[in-house]
């Protein structure tokens, strides 16, 4: 029995290493979640409220780096991205009832750095 377990462990290790192992993660493309420009104001506000009940949205407060521009689309995009990043960057973490959009271009601006 011990030989079978050892052989299986060795096989799994070989498969893991041949698949790229940890190097596969290092090559993943960075993605962000932003609000779709077609989203209505009520949806954007709901997205901010939902995301900010699950993640820290302090960077959106007045005087913080991401407050300006003070618009729902900007604040929703930042809140949605914070949620998306914290929850594992899965497609479903950016759905927000089909009002989220996963992008590959960093949406950071000025001193507002998207996580």
Q: How would you portray this structure in words?
A:
This protein is mostly helical. 44% of the residues lie in helices and 7% in strands. α3 packs parallel to α4 (72-86). Residues 4-26 have low confidence and may be disordered. 23% of the residues are buried. The N and C termini lie far apart (48 Å).
Characteristic terms for this protein:
single chain; 115 residues; mainly alpha; two-stranded antiparallel sheet; 4 helices; 2 strands; 7% strand
How many strand segments? 2
Distance between the termini: 48 Å
Radius of gyration: 20 Å
Please summarize the sheet with the most strands.
Answer: 2 strands, antiparallel
- What is the overall number of helices? 4
Q: What's the mean pLDDT score?
A: 84
Shape: globular
User: From N to C, what is the helix and strand string?
Assistant: HHEHHE
Strand percentage, roughly?
A: 5-15%
Helix content range: 40-55%
Q: Which structural class do the helices and strands define?
A: mainly alpha
Any low-confidence stretches, pLDDT <50, length ≥5? 4-26
The order of strands across the largest sheet is 1-2
Q: What is the element layout, followed by pairings?
A:
Layout: H1 2-18, H2 22-26, E1 32-35, H3 41-54, H4 72-86, E2 100-103
Antiparallel strand pairs: 1-2
Signal peptide: 1-26
GO cellular component, one term: plasma membrane
Subcellular location: Cell membrane
Q: In a few lines, what is going on in this structure?
A:
This protein has helices at 2-18, 22-26, 41-54, 72-86, and strands at 32-35, 100-103.
